[in-house]
Every structure is written in C-alpha cells, then in structure tokens.
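In these records, each integer encodes one residue's backbone shape. Here is one protein:

___
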Amino acid sequence: MKKVLGIIVLVLALSLVSVPAFAQTAELSLKYWHAGVGGADLWVADYQVADKLDYPAHGYYDYDFSKEKLVLQPAMGGSFILSGSYFLSPSTSVAISYWGLSRADTVGVEFIDKYDKEESLEDEDGPYWRYRSYMLTMPWWEIPWEFYSDRELWTGYWDFDGKAVLAAEGALSMSALDIAGTKTLAGSGWEVGLSGGVRRAVFAQDQSTGLELSGGYFDDDIDDIEYVDSSSEKWNLDLDSRLDITAIGPQVGIEGKYALGNKLVLKAGAKAGILFGTATSDATWSVDNWDYEEVEDSYKWVLDGFADVSYTATDSVQISTYDLSASLGYQITEQWSVEAGYYASLWKGVPSLRFFKYDPEETCPGDDPIDYRCDSKKATWEQPEVRDIVTSGLTVGVNFAF
C-alpha cells in the first residue's frame, strides 16, 4: 500500500510540474478511514459439546448439547484514502484517488475427551455412565459428525483418551484506484460536479483450516496425552483455499458542496461502476493418517496413508461497485482545510472461495470423513453463491490546495 501511495504522489507532483500553463489550482487530500468489512465472513464449523449419559439398564442415551459457531470475520481497522485533483479550468478537473485495506482473523477450538472406566454414577433413573461427546459440521462435511462417540474407528481402542484441535485463519485485502474527469456547475454557495472515468479494483481472500485428531492415554496432566505402542493413531485434515480478483471498468459519479457558513462546507458524493475481469481460485485438500510405531528402538509417528487433491481455475467475473461519501469540512486557511465524515464502498457479485466436499453416497459411505472407505479423489469442489461485500466507516482527513 505504501508503494502505491508513493506512486500516486509522484504522479500528482509530475503532473503539476508538466502542466503549469493550464492548471489554475490543485488539491491533495489524505483521509484516515476506520472501516469494517461486511459480507466476507468465512464459515469454519459448527460444533456441539455434549454430556452423553448412558443408562445400560434402561437401554437409552441422554444428551445435553451446547452449540457454538466458528466464523472468520474481518475486523474493524485503519485504512487510508488518498486523492488529488487538477483544475484545468474553473469548471473542469482531472482527479485520481486510491484506497486499500487488509484484514485478518483466526479462530479455533480444542476438544479433550478423557475416558474413565471407573466413573459410574446413579440418579433417579438408575446407574449410568457419563461420556463427553463432540459433534462437528463443516463445509466439507455437512453431516453432523460425532467423532468421539466411536473413537475406536481412529484410536484403536474404545478406552483411549482423545484430543482434537480445530484451527483456522483467514486474510482479506481489497483496493480501488479511480481516474476520472469532472465537469462542475456552480451557483451561490453550492457546486455540483458530474464525473466519468475508470476504476481498477483488486480483491484477494484466503482461508486455511486444519483439524487434527489423536488418541492415547492422558497422564496426570490432562493437557498431555501419553501415546502408547502401535495402537495410537493420529489424523490430519487440511483445507487451503485462495481467491484473487482483478477487474477494471467504467465509472460515473456525482459530487456536491454546499456552504453552511464562511468556513463550514457540507460535501457529499456517489459513484457507480461496472467492472470486468478474472477470478483465480487455488485450493488444496489433504488427509493423512499416522500410526505410533517403534522405529530404531523408540516409538515415533509414522505416516500410514496420505491423500492430496488440488484445484485451480480462472473464471471471468463482472462486479458492480457503488461508493457513497459524506463529510463536513472546515476551512482553516486559504490552503488548508480539515474534514470528518463517512465513506462506504459496496461491491456486488464477488465470487466465493472454493471448498472441498465429500458426497456421502458416492465418496464416503461411512458416517465420518476418516472412514477407510472414503475416496478423496472422487469428491467434488464446491463454490457458494456470489457475495455482496461492503466496507464502510468514519473518515477524518486534511486537504491542501495550491
């Protein structure tokens, strides 16, 4: 972003030097923009934690679930809007402006399941056993997956302790570079300008999600698992997905000023554009299985099985953008002024990230994605519907005219 700002400032300076005979006035503006991003959230998983009560004498189970959702959300943060205008005549100007932002987020959860075969309880329904059970629903596995209720599938033995770590991180960046010519109409205390030009927009977003399952025996410290002989097992499931978009197209706008007094000015503007470009998707899905085996007189994790599926595609895109701004300016001197306001940019039709999806009937006849019958190579890549992404927030800035 600093490099782009430097290029813009250099272009503005060279332009002022190169057209001194035509430029009557010029103006530079720098605004701090505290903006949030909406519509770009990435769903990681829904998970449920339950106390599973087993009443063998009565032949039934009882569950007490608590549900939570994990979502990657771009947070509020600081950005900058830089613009410059050259007036070739009192009513004609050329302007260039740039804004950009970057956001990141991380989420995660850890599950620990300690099996205690000595724990036997009793209530009004009789004796029962209590287990901790977990369920996951993820984009690539839409069936609620109760992975600890049948730990024998992946830990070797029912009475093993289990541990799972689900972690995800995501990043987003977007920017817009506008070049436009404006024709201004003026009256007593007011100005209205009509503009036409071009916008270049760049959008990038990525997501990385990993789920690790392992089983062994807990020692006295519940945060540590003691893995034993070749019965211990570990699974890793990872999804990495990235989307890059570059688009360019025509843009029109309107802006106005109204004097509220000798030094106070109310400003407002709106721009709309239709951009055409390409969207590149890159994604990788991997699953690996590890056994705890003896290697050279010591036990180590040894890779037992591995699957890796990649996806790459470049598609044409059409994105509509709409920008709104409003501010209140105060003239300090003839050259310097400050202003505070609000700026919003709406991008409609932004593609979504691709994700890997199992088809339980075709690729995974079992009830969990680490079933030995799952065939990752026969699964499909899915892409949710296009999104409307809006970034908006308060601005404060300074203007210099010369």
Summary: Residues 13 and 188 are 32 Å apart (CA to CA). Helices lie at 2-18, 152-155.
